[in-house]
Hints:
The complex is a heterodimer of chains A (about 300) and B (about 270).
Chain A (H helix, E strand, L loop, with lengths): L11 E3 L2 E3 L3 E3 L21 E3 L16 E4 L2 E4 L8 H14 L4 E5 L4 H12 L4 E7 L10 H4 L2 H14 L4 E4 L7 H10 L4 E4 L3 E4 L1 E2 L4 E2 L5 E5 L4 H14 L4 E4 L5 H9 L4 E4 L2 H4 L3 H15 L15
Parallel strand pairs in A: 3-4, 3-16, 4-7, 7-8, 8-9, 9-10, 10-15, 15-16
Antiparallel strand pairs in A: 1-2, 5-6, 6-14, 11-14, 12-13
Helix pairs in contact in A: 2-4, 4-5, 5-6, 7-9
Chain B lengths: L6 E13 L2 E8 L10 E5 L10 E4 L2 E5 L2 E9 L3 H7 L6 E8 L11 E7 L3 H13 L3 E8 L20 E5 L6 E2 L2 H10 L3 H4 L2 E6 L2 H13 L4 E4 L15 E6 L2 E6 L6 E3 L6
Parallel strand pairs in B: 8-9, 8-12, 9-10, 10-11, 12-13
Antiparallel strand pairs in B: 1-2, 1-7, 2-6, 3-4, 3-7, 5-6, 13-16, 14-15
Helix pairs in contact in B: 3-5
Amino acid sequence: MVIPAAAPDLTSRVGSVVLKNPVMSASGTFGYGLEFTPFYDISRLGAVIVKGLSLLPTPGNAPQRIVETAAGMLNAIGLQNIGVERFVREVVPRLADAGATCVANIYGRTMEEYEEVARRLEGVASLSAIELNASCPNVKEGGIAFGSTPEGLSTLTRRVRAATGKPLWVKLSPNVSDIRSVARAAEDAGADAVTLINTLVGMAVDCRTRRPRLSNVTGGLSGPAVKPVALRMVWEACRAVKIPVVGIGGIQSAEDALEFLLVGAAAVQVGTANFRNPNACVEIIDGIAAFLARERLAGLDEYRGSLRI
Amino acid sequence: MPFRRPRFVTGRILHNSGHGIFYRMEVSIPDRIEFLPGQFAMVSGWPGNDPLLPRPLAIFRAGGVRGKGTVEFVYKVVGRGTALLSGLHDGDPLQITLPLGNGFELGREDRIWWLVGGGVGFSTVFPAAVALEARRADFDLFLGARSRDQLPPREWIPGAGVPGRAHLCTDDGTAGFFGPVTDAVRERMDRMKAAERGRVTILACGPREMLKGIAELAADREVPVQASLENHMACGFGVCWGCVTGVRDGDKVTYRRVCKEGPVFDAREVVW
């Protein structure tokens, strides 16, 4: 007799934050979340991570901002956003109405601005965590100045840690010589989790016009092209720190997401795939559940971190 | 019910064939859509991750019955994505997000509508012509191309049976007006009486240089222009912020998304 199995348990934890499944939208690829409501119920996601918020509205970089590359794309958006005040006033209530678990990604031009944005979000009950963007490669002040050395990241994390009681996730740049030392610096400075990777700095030029293809000259590479690099860095970070690691980088399918979970990620974020298929996140959630059922696993906890070497 | 809010659907190609330099593709989709002229779709169908991103195509026509829709696109091969699209066969699946963008504003009655299409830009203005023809509005078409064989096939031109309605222009003089479509528009406009010119609204889609030319000549004559812009896009529905164009907002310039606040903009506001 075949006993029908219960649906596999996808519950995931990133520190104290409990997620109904391990799939979150990556910041900068999901707008403010509401843009996806025509496509599906965004409360189905582990969490919505909104586009990076600054103290004041930010105009972003001049066009051209994106260029497609082999199995990927470069972007240099320049963190265009509506600013934290308008976000709290106009977007947060609508995300709460939609039942979404929400994480705010923040950045500042100075350490003081980071602290101020974090403080401004402190009283917003429906925000589950703050993700510190210490790694945008396209804005000089977008955190890369703080995020590319263990010392800089340590200072920034410590200061924002002191400014907020919310769970603090630190998003790491892959444009460093040793991901383990920056992950450890974030952990030591009080981060509740690290999320990685942000985009890899890249460049595209036109051999005929002899001009760069992006107005910013360089941009951040994302998409399937970066996945092997991301997977290696997530694996290294998982072995270097005790806090949860959230895996990001080129995830297009349930199999891709499972690979990050296999090397030890507590959860994952899906980014560029949302551009190509607005339903990517929910298809990945369903695909993970189907995989666990096929493997006869009761839940993700039986699978996560089970890499055999 | 036909849908108007964006959806991501998998369709199946019914036809995908070449007509001169253009391709016309008809696709069956799970439901009927209602779209505004000037709205577009993000389309992909090739296997694998390269190219990664779907391609924006104007919605050329839509039809079907309840529970079973069709949508048509007209495109030109300009790069790898459109080359791959042109190689897809009848019966192949196609991923489509639609309908997207704002579309043309055709609400004002008693206007004289001039629809200007440069190159494959006709595929964006023809649906507006179809809508205007259906309500017997007064409209003219100005179609520009490099050469005779790069103009749309005559049977695609809405209302082409009405003498003097379609003004064809070629850069090399092989058909119609000898010169850029902007010159044809300017000459005709300057032959109009001022009162009549005051009733003209231009809807335009084509290369940026053409749109800029139309915007300038129309601004000098106080004629409104709705310009449909193109840009590289990653998502097409407003989340990547990659496709922005500079728009005047008072004495400042702000960046608006071609896919969301556009693709149709008031030409006077665009920073050309």
